[in-house]
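Class prep. Sample record?

___
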Amino acid sequence: MELQARLIKLTQSLIRIDSQNPPGRERQIATFIRDIFSKYSVKTHLIEFKQNRTNLIVLIKGNKSKTTLLLTPHLDTVPIGRNWKFKPLGGQIYRNRIYGRGATDCKANVAVCVETLRKILEDKVRLNYDIIFAATADEETGSQYGLIPLLKKRLITADFALILDADDFDIIVAQKGLLHIKISITGKSAHGAYPQRGINAIDLAAKFINEIKKIKLPFKKHKYLRPPTINIGKIRGGDKVNMVADWCEFECDIRYLPGSDSSAIIKMIREKLSSITDKYKIQVLAKQNPYEVDQDTKLMQSLKRASLDTVGFCHFTGSEGATVMTFFQKYNIACVATGFGSKNNAHSANESVSIENLIKGCKFLTNFLLNFDQQFS
């Protein structure tokens, strides 16, 4: 089969495998890809940290085996949602685009990676480094059953990592930090007809929420990132409409820039809360440090060259949201992210990917792997 036709068919096949998360069932898609690589002389492993939450690891040995490059897209998608004109698991082609949940995020990247590696194996290209292909589970809900334990348990180790989870050949070189906190406020209950006898925790929360929007988080202006943000994403409180609410809790999403300190941010919030009430508790639900890519690494030099050779430009950008880039910091693995999806499609109804992006994506990734190889020849 012609390589282009094989790539399109592969992308369609991946879209047709349901890997929505939640509920999270990546076993079928992981096994499907494993079976593709089973035809070649490579080692494959299916690894689960929870039933059906399957990660696929493929090891392609090189000539020298002193350096290891990790290529890692993810297998799961967000839920299908509503308002689709195309079958969400159909992989339908319309006007040179392939439609379906995960088409852009992240099955286009999976397909490009699988097809590129398959072509290298078929052509018997021997690179001067090892490749680990890790198609991971659970990226959409935090990677607790995917990349995090794979790295923590040293089931994958590498010198360099290329994360394939971006759109239109963007090269992500910086990322905001993430801080999720839950604030619980305690009041005093009373009959709703006599609110003056109680202390309404919802009123206190509302006052704080109004004040938190006035907080100016300190930051240094960044070339690729917008200023820091605070968003109240969830709130609940009280037990009954005719009672003064003696409890209220809400969750904040805070995105902060490289050079900022999460503990200093929490201190600012604590000071603001203390000016309103002393009956509160702050719980950190999640934290990811901001990240900046060292642009002088062999990884980045090879990626820049591949981008110029394939698409004629290098579009460096930052990520306002969290990506898996931050997980590599503590393991001293140089990493960067790029990808071949289509902008403004991820997580949307009628998600799609351009067939042109898929074809160029294979050329891009092939060029990158060969350019990276020259660094070790």
Summary: The chain has two domains: 3-175+291-374, 177-288.
